[in-house]
Amino acid sequence: MKDWCSVVPRGIRLTVQIMPNAKKSEVIGVLDDALKIRLHAQPIEGKANDALVRYLADVLDVPKSAVTITHGHTSKRKMIEIVASQLTPEKVRLALFPGISH
């Protein structure tokens, strides 16, 4: 099975499954090979995509410009690339799942 978080030449790639229209934006776990994220945004006019980019940039402490949706702009399942040489899969997991040892 493929991992939801992998290394790419300039940073990290994430596979995510979003659930829009949530009460708040939060990571809810991993299902199969995708990180599941609830988003407090509607899936219209790119609002959920914008919310996803903002959420990941905030949680991973990177600029929004470093977070790009590379696949799945109109789908709930998306591929995200984060250009940040300081990020490793372990740092991503620690940021997204604080308090859980990996």
Q: Which properties best describe this structure?
A:
single chain, 102 residues, alpha+beta, 2 helices, 6 strands, UPF0235 protein TSA66_10035
Structural shape? globular
Poorly predicted regions: none
CATH superfamily: YggU-like
Examine the coordinates and then state which fold CATH places here, giving the name of the CATH topology: Conserved Hypothetical Protein Mth637, Chain: A
Assign the CATH class: Alpha Beta
Please give the domain count. Answer: 1
Task: Report the biggest beta sheet as strand number plus sense, adding barrel if it closes.
Answer: 6 strands, mixed
In which range does the helix fraction lie? 10-25%
Q: Give the SSE string.
A: EEEEHEEH
Alpha carbon gap, first and last residue: 18 Å
% residues in beta strands? 35-45%
Number of extended strands: 6
Radius of gyration: 13 Å
Structural class: alpha+beta
> Tally the helices: what do you get?
2
CATH architecture: 2-Layer Sandwich
Please tell me the overall pLDDT. 93
Protein name: UPF0235 protein TSA66_10035
Organism: Noviherbaspirillum autotrophicum
GO cellular component, one term: cytoplasm
Pfam families: DUF167
Could you give a quick summary of the protein structure above?
The protein has 102 residues and is an alpha+beta fold. 22% of the residues lie in helices and 35% in strands.
Q: Could you please describe the fold and organization of this structure?
A:
This protein is of the alpha+beta class and 102 residues long. The protein has a single domain (5-96), classed as YggU-like (Conserved Hypothetical Protein Mth637, Chain: A, 2-Layer Sandwich), CATH 3.30.1200. Helices cover 22% and strands 35% of the residues. The protein contains two helices and six strands. The protein has helices at 47-60, 89-96, and strands at residues 5-8, 11-19, 26-31, 34-38, 67-71, 77-83. Strands 1, 2, 3, 4, 5 and 6 form a six-stranded mixed sheet that branches. A hairpin with a 2-residue loop joins strand 1 (5-8) and strand 2. The longest helix has 14 residues, at 47-60. The chain is globular and about 30 Å long. The model has no long low-confidence stretch (mean pLDDT 93). Belongs to the UPF0235 family. InterPro entries: DUF167 (IPR003746), YggU-like_sf (IPR036591). It comes from Noviherbaspirillum autotrophicum.
